[in-house]
Fold this protein.
Amino acid sequence: MALPPPPPLLFITFLFSLLAFSSAAAAATTVTLSLTPFIPKRPRSSNSSFAASNDNSSWQSQMVNLLATSSLARAKHLKKHNSSSSSTPTKIPTFPRSYGGYSIDLGFGTPAQTLSFVMDTGSSLLWFPCTSRYACDSCSFTKSDPSKIRRFIPKLSSSAKLVGCRNPKCAWIFGPTAASRCRDECASGHNCSQQTCPPYLIQYGSGDTAGVLLSETLSFSGGRKVPGFLAGCSLLSTRQPAGIAGFGRGLESLPSQMGLRRFSYCLLSRRFDDTSASSDLVLEPGRGSGGDRKTDGVVYTPFRANPSLPGSAFKDYYYIGLRKVLVGGKAVKVPHRYLVPGADGNGGAIVDSGSTFTFMERPVLDAVAEELERQMANYTRAKGVEAQTGLSPCFDVSGRGDAVMVPELSLQFKGGATMALPLENYLVLAGEGSGAACVAIVTDDAPIGPEVSGGPAVILGSFQQQNFYVEYDLENERFGFRKQSCKVK
């Protein structure tokens, strides 16, 4: 997230005029939430065969283009991301959504108000649409009515509190400058006890949100409560169909505030539509109590540190050691500087549930595309579909019968863990009669320069993670996965 200087006084006054608050130990139990995808049916595969579908081809191409565009915008945001400031598991249902993300429901306030959030491992602050006057610009998405976005109403909660300027949690967002500003204003004769943390402005790849920080009670079904949880009460947003639950590595993230030793999920196969089907997001608290226990069948690769300067927002990301990209079992030639973060923090690979399609820097994707073209020499490039969808390369598979033979795409990580992607995780059907198969990876066509080539070189998106059990072992600093069919609830 990008946090520019606090908004002007008029904006601050407007924010506070909308709020009416009254002032207000959790057991180490696992929490499980439903996780739901926020796209037309995906192609099915059997071993190395790729089945084509002719349904809704025009709409499908448009939806793929929308998601490719939003994935690229998200990648640009993550790559330029600079900060100006620096037990028993809980299961949560997770739902797929048509605009490319996965949502969870959480309760906030006393009594609890149930709200919907996009699960995002690429950012840290959790925020929700707030007050009856919440305004969202350009928030009309497929099957989504902006007027029906669920809002948190602070005046209906007895535990809602504005976060003070001297509260240490204010510094989680604004750094030490917040405390120094408090001291400066106190020296000028202001009432320090009434001074609140400055409003925030968070910029994402395709939109933004602004509001004030609250201390509130987070609750889960089953009775587990987390009092004093830092959350954003957003009053103004652009292109945000729901609140965002930050699962990044910052102090303000949900995993950090709950003291999770690990969390895991299994993302349902994407159909790019809103659905009532869901899978589980599992939260396991009790950091320091789990030891080196590994999950059956899961292969692990260590998280790696980014050597960038303290205060860099790159510190919020989950970096993993990508060693090789293989096409049909053959490793493509990728320069080392793209696989490992340099001293300036640029390069390397991260995992991001908030991105739909995986991003690769142009030299990385070019190497992958070149090997794909060599191994698929019997198919012609579908240039028209590439222009239509924003994805490349696309191959003409029309008139090939029920099945098309394509090579396997695999990612090999430090320690030998290899993620062999099923065909439906890296190819999408598009074009007239769904007669083209496109690689669901985006890149930037702009000339390579300091801004474009900065940040992570590879961003592993949620589309490539579907039907994998994925585990973030925070206690042992490692990322784990195994292929499985995700449970539908």
